[in-house]
Predict the 3D structure of the following.
Amino acid sequence: MEASDAWNKRWEASTLPMARTFMEVATRKKSLVCLAADKYTMAELFELLEAVGPSIAALKTHVDLIDDWNMEEWGRFCARAQAMDLLIFEDRKFADIGKISRKQMGGIYNIKEWSDLVTAHLISGPDIVDGLQAAWAEASREGGVLLLAQMSSRGNLLNPEYTSTVVEAGRVHPGVFGFIGNGSNADSVRELRSKVGEGKMIWTPGVNLATGDGEMGQRYGDPYEAVMAGSDCIIVGSGIHGSDDPAAAAAAYAEASWKGLMER
Ligand code: 5BU
């Protein structure tokens, strides 16, 4: 199947090349799954990637969680992810002013050199997106920013009015790849999609085949429901890496997400 057929309006309306790249990868792999690779050693990360790589379309990292992180091994890890046809997404949740966020793309982790996507809060204003884009430009690379319009955790402060403000600013910004939405609640995703329109991605954490409450305030909704409500990518961590059989779990999430896209 061609990505343009699978994604229809989203394909037509997308403004960022990276969004089309994602839609192509997802179509090749019949998966709208982004793995939240929340592991604490490089060996565990490599093992997880080998097991689930074929069933996922993107790899979400928290580079600062890893006890034995070093640039050499990280470079090999990213190269392996690219060879497995994955986008690399550092969930850094940048929030500072534009010039500092730009510099935080460098430093010891040098995120600008290997990330295709990063998350940011818009709390400091729209210049954060320009700062992050300037960092990728310095590295002669392209990237996309996912703005946090909603969160999955209970009691978060991103109320509907805040969500609307983020979407209004982000939907017209060429550096914005899309928005993070609350995958634990299909109605929230639907509401977010109505605000966003067709032109930007919505990616949703807080997704698990076992719905309900998770650890420390996390909440979970169903992957198929999230896609039906307008999510373009389900971000799944413990549902995959916490399973006894991560490869089989990843395949199950891929199937649920792809079914959602086909029916949507
Ligand atoms: P889980 O194991 O599927 O609960 O992991 C969820 C991941 O998504 C984890 O890496 C979080 O940092 C990330 N996340 C989230 O859970 N909720 C949010 O609102 C945002 C990110 Br933004």
